[in-house]
Amino acid sequence: MTCAIFYASKSGHAKEVANKISFALDEIRVFDISLTGSEYISDYKHIIFGVSTWDHGQMQKDWQKIWDDFKYINFKGKTVAIFGLGDQKKYPDEFADAMRYVYDDLSKSGANIVGFTSTQGYEFNQSKAVIDDKFVGLVIDEHNQAELTNQRIKNWTEQIRADMLHATS
Ligand SMILES: Cc1cc2nc3c(=O)[nH]c(=O)nc-3n(C[C@H](O)[C@H](O)[C@H](O)COP(=O)(O)O)c2cc1C
User: Fold this and answer.
1) Engineering a disulfide at 115: which of 19, 26, 160, 162 sits with its beta carbon 3.0 to 4.6 angstroms away?
2) Any residues with CB less than 8 A from the CB of 13 and at least 6 apart, and which?
3) Which cofactors does this protein require (predicted)?
4) CATH topology of domain 3-165
């Protein structure tokens, strides 16, 4: 298997989403980076990263801890997708911002980033996770739109399935 999910989660939302994505993609491996750090990331060619936003637009703390190592991983030739957790009602000016830091780093490192999604159906003022009117990955809001989560995961995993599981190179 060449595909895995790496996530961190403070209150369990990203963990739950990671497990649902894994299930939808034929039970691919899931790593909690608070336990494994950045180890194993380089072993995979197709990778999904899960990052929640905390403290006004910051990456969740376990992500911050591995950031110095993460920055130096070479993602050239790897296909990656990002999902993020946020709260659009309480943090409408920093909604899911942390995804952008991961995106920028992956992009600089030459990763092939897939899984952009529409911002339609969300209500917020601004988000660093938006580029050219699209989120840089899947955005889940368990506080205000939990009822949409399963469908959003289903749509997204169908969207990225070919890139993640059937890529030939
Ligand atoms: C103190 C605090 C700060 C937060 N800051 C943000 C924020 O800046 N932007 C955002 O979109 N969500 C923010 N959130 C919402 C979290 O991203 C949300 O609760 C998410 O589901 C947490 O996922 P996790 O439990 O997997 O870490 C914040 C939540 C708390 C409690």
Assistant:
1) 160
2) 52, 85, 140, 142
3) FMN
4) Rossmann fold (3.40.50)
